[in-house]
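## retry 2 of 3
previous attempt timed out at serialization; input unchanged, resubmitting
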Amino acid sequence: MGKIFVLDNITIDKIAAGEVVERPASVVKELVENAMDSGASAITVEIKNGGIEFIRVTDNGKGIEKEDIPKAFLRHATSKIRQIEDLDTVLSMGFRGEALASIASVAKVELITKCHDELMGNRYVIEGGVKKELEEIGAPSGTTIIVRNLFYNTPARRKFLKSESAEGGHIADILEHLALCRPDIAFSFIMNGKTKFSTAGNNDLKEVIYRIFGRETAKEMIPVSYEKDGIKMEGYLGTPVNNRPNRNYENYFINKRFVKSDIIAKGIEEGYKAYLMQHKFPFCVLNFEMDTHNLDVNVHPAKMEVRFHNKQDFYDFLSGAVRETLQAKEMISDCVVSEPVKEKFHFDSSPQPFETNRRISEDLPAQNFTAEISDKKDAIINAPKEEHAENNIGDTDTSDNDFFVAKVLDSLSLGKENADIHKNVIKEKEHIFVEKDYVISQKPVQLSLFEEEERVLSEKARKNFTLIGQIFESYWLLTYGENLYFIDQHAAHEKVNYEKLMKRYRDNAVVSQQINPPIIVSLSPKEGIWLKDNLTYFLNLGFELEAFGGNEYALRAIPLELYQNDPKDMFLSALNELVEAVPDKAPDVITDRIATMACKASVKAGKTLSRAEMEELLDELLKLENPYHCPHGRPTLFSMSKYEIEKKFKRII
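## retry succeeded, writing output
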């Protein structure tokens, strides 16, 4: 008897499901993408117990016709493509026809759907790949899919799931990316009965960023729109102060599809290179529109990995676009003093998926106003304050309602003794701007810097700066208008030196300092071979070398800026970095080496400078295109407004 058997369809489906359904988040991703493809304008996702026991996805899309319902759960049944050539132009989120079949084979699935032009809907139940029920029922237009007991029939898969909170976190992450790539769809995510986040579906990407990541993140975003050679990039770049410790906040999409790509990540980070310190990563939300013939999304079952037909061109486009966008903006960090707790009022901002007119509820929590009249001041001051957790999971079923504070105070009928509170509240509200249905606090100083045609840090604006002096033998104080500026003398000098060295390197016009007598340097065979093949790199940096026999070289000159440092140590450290670098990374190592040279040649903290020296260095700093950060990403300066200073002295409450 033969030993090779053909597996039955149910077993095949369970095995194949492992490629598509890895965890509850995979189920949510597939179902929500189907809802997006159905033309839905509102999608609600509800989960319980991390999605292991219960997932419900509801949309108001076009629905599924009765005769298509059983076919939708067959493997490789799809309405998205007809032939292999369609893969070259596919724009829908799904196209393989595997999702529903895979989910139904490892869970208990219930589908309720109704097309817009039909009077009745249909309910379909399938468990473990076996049809259980199909009946007509009354239902709203659209589709609801309920998935229960995931992996109930494959216990080996179920035991490898993480905790309920961890699985819920993966689902939240998926939904956040989907909401960011489609701001025109109203998303609502409910976990264990609590709304985690919701979006309005008004096609305002910044509103979605605010809803998911909070006010502090949303206000530190720079809009970007860049188009070249048939590729269009739109979205938001975070300012350098909006940096993160990992790449998890680099959100990018191609043709509104969330993808993962080393090329995109490296291109973004290259554009930010002059603005961020090492081991810091940017926050961004970017969508790329491009011809589908230039990439392949059919790489992995999750459809999150892409391949570019011309990686280098795309990398150059992306890094250049990011760099140009950042260079066009002032990058001055402002110092915000600690403030008293501001008046906060909560209102339900969660958009309901099928509600035609979304509105902000002005109903206030009764428990905040149960104090006696004499205690109303404290009740207002201590009202709940909104919190936005950076892990994207924090409850957001209530939001700020600063805009209605004046109305609330009036409704409380406060007496004359509290009139000053009302005035102060109104004064604070002058520094609030409203963007559609959300409120974002914007610092007046930062707003003015971004809106002024004349840059604050520019040669033209130099005459408006007044140098006060040096403090702690490390920092300078300057004034410009109603702002106080703090400059780090080492970072500023380092930036000036770096730009000088880079210009000389690019122009092949480096200045060297002769060493007499020459320094003899002994190299290993590997170092000797590499130096011989790449001697041009060192000549362009300003080193002069001559073979001295065997593996020894005579170091006759070094870059002028490094003359005060140990020439041999500087040369060997640069050589070691270049030897260890892969060939195509050598230019990056050269740039890093120039940054190190600039650092070592710069005035150090703790050194007293004369007024003339400070004025001269300030002149040079303001001539630079990017004077905001040193080559290693540290800020060269930050500002503090007169408004913030007066708040510190309680002149403004």
